[in-house]
User: Which sequence fits this backbone?
């Protein structure tokens, strides 16, 4: 008995002595115009990492966090630093579609497994062997918004989109296509630019057109100011945005009472926990941060779980002796993920496209300062 215990203790000591630290990069906008998105995402990543940082063989995962400032140059530099300088095994991020597109060729060049948790533009993963997505795409998100409007008898619309953001341009196109196919009429497409603060010209045109519906696939900093000016002009048409405004706190801070009634498509609602892990995550998140997790936190956790699961499958002596082989194994494991329990639901990745299979969306509405669940939409 003593001999067995001694052998067991020796194995444990050996495992501890030879345990390795595996680095995973996190590339998020922690400062800049959408810093709140990045901070919420990082909160989710850190919480799930605290639960899943140790691997079965005793190895541990260390997060290497870089702020891309929601800037393409900083995003590329940060990605190169993580992939080539820090020698991370995989990278989670970037968050936004335009940022993810900016590093697309570097992911392929460095053969670095990259998981973007919430970049929805279809081009992000198209043709890429090394970028995997943890969320639905704009093709689906735009269709959800179009069908919602048509279902509620809103047969004509104005689209307001950001010319500088691939996310916004792609989502506007997806909405327009689905809306027209369903019999809706687009009265006008109006563009803005990131950083704009004066939307009176666009508001004047909208007021003249008096649309039944206004679709705004833009980010929260611009959306908040746009809503304030829209409602001040007396325009009462219902407004719906995409997941780029899924930060009710920021939206209400910028728009004030004008945010009331605004709808948006999103990836997750904490009131509708789809898995046991979701329930645990929501409870632990509220305990740690004093608030319910947003979709950014939830998808951030999902992105990390995809990477963790891939590393767990590939963390063998043969792979860890060859860094490139290890990365390729992790990438392959991520791309062949099947029925993984995650925070937003079960995740299965299509290995050919790098996109999740059958990822649903939720429609949310801000009512009297609170987020209200409207409906769940399956693909």
Assistant:
């Amino acid at each position: 008995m003593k001999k067995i215990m001694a052998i067991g203790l020796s194995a444990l000591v050996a495992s501890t002595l030879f345990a390795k630290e595996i680095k995973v990069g996190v590339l998020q906008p922690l400062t800049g115009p959408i810093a709140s998105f990045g901070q919420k995402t990082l909160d989710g990543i850190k919480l799930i990492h605290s639960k899943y940082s140790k691997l079965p063989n005793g190895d541990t995962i260390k997060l290497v966090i870089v702020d891309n400032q929601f800037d393409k140059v900083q995003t590329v530099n940060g990605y190169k630093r993580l992939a080539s300088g820090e020698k991370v095994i995989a990278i989670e991020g970037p968050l936004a579609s335009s940022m993810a597109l900016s590093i697309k060729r570097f992911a392929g060049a460095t053969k670095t497994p990259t998981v973007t948790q919430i970049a929805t533009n279809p081009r992000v993963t198209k043709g890429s062997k090394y970028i995997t997505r943890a969320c639905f795409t704009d093709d689906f998100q735009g269709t959800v918004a179009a069908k919602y409007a048509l279902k509620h008898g809103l047969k004509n619309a104005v689209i307001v989109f950001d010319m500088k953001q691939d996310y916004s341009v792609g989502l506007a196109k997806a909405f327009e296509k689905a809306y027209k196919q369903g019999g809706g009429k687009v009265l006008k497409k109006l563009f803005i630019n990131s950083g704009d603060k004066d939307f009176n010209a666009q508001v004047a045109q909208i007021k003249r057109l008096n649309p039944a519906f206004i679709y705004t696939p833009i980010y929260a900093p611009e959306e908040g100011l746009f809503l304030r000016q829209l409602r001040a002009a007396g325009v009462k048409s219902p407004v719906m945005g995409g997941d780029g405004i899924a930060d009710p706190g920021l939206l209400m801070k910028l728009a004030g009472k004008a945010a009331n009634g605004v709808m948006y498509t999103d990836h997750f609602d904490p009131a509708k926990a789809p898995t046991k892990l979701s329930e645990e995550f929501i409870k632990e998140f509220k305990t740690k941060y004093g608030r319910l997790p947003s979709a950014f936190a939830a998808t951030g956790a999902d992105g990390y779980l995809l990477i963790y699961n891939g590393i767990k499958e590939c963390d063998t002596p043969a792979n860890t002796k060859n860094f490139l082989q290890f990365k390729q194994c992790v990438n392959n494991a991520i791309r062949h993920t099947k029925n993984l329990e995650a925070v937003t639901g079960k995740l299965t990745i299509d290995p050919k496209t790098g996109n999740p299979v059958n990822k649903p969306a939720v429609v949310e509405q801000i009512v009297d300062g609170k987020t209200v669940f409207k409906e769940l939409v399956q693909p």
